[in-house]
Amino acid sequence: MAFRIQEFMSDVSRRGLAKQSNFEVIFSLPSNILGTASISNLSALTSLRTSSDLSLRCESIDFPGRGIQAVDSYRKSGFGVPINVPIAGIHLEVTATFLCTDSFYEKEIFETWQDLLVGDYRKNPSSTVNQFNPGYYDDYIKPCQMQISQYKETGEKTYEIELRELWPRTINPLQGSWSGGDQVHRLNVSFNYRYHVIKKSSLESQTDIQALRQLGNVSGIL
Description:
It is built from 5 helices and 10 strands. The chain has a single domain, classed as Pnp Oxidase, Chain A (Roll).
């Protein structure tokens, strides 16, 4: 089918284009990450305030992808070209970039979260009690979430995805440099999570579902 420029322009005008800058990130952190001895000046803060601070400083975020784990199988004959059978979803890491405060507040928040997971040897190297003790999954990972939303230029939310059982796997190093001048430190953090849930989708509209069925002739799927 030949490309029809007028039809394309009409579709863009009607449905718009998603802009990378129109996003929002909200974190649900471990409940006892605040007020701990390992974070200075945080005892008076609330989880909501800390989540808001991280949201404001988040310069970029990956909307998550997904892979499929599969195993090779064969038909009843037991030979021939194998069939790749999908068995489970694989949820890939997402990376967020944060603009750092002059005290590296964001870095300390995520490192303290990691302390809850793998032990507090970073701040208590002489301790012989909990120095290398890992935390409990149900305490420091299971209740933690990240919500990522996309908005129109008008401020209307068009898409929202929630990453569940979240934890910070990798905190990338920050580079100091005399040649950096006034460049701002940007902290890259990669997160693992168990699965994601769609909280708001364009396919919630019955009109969009009907249009998709007509376009792709997939009425047997949707």
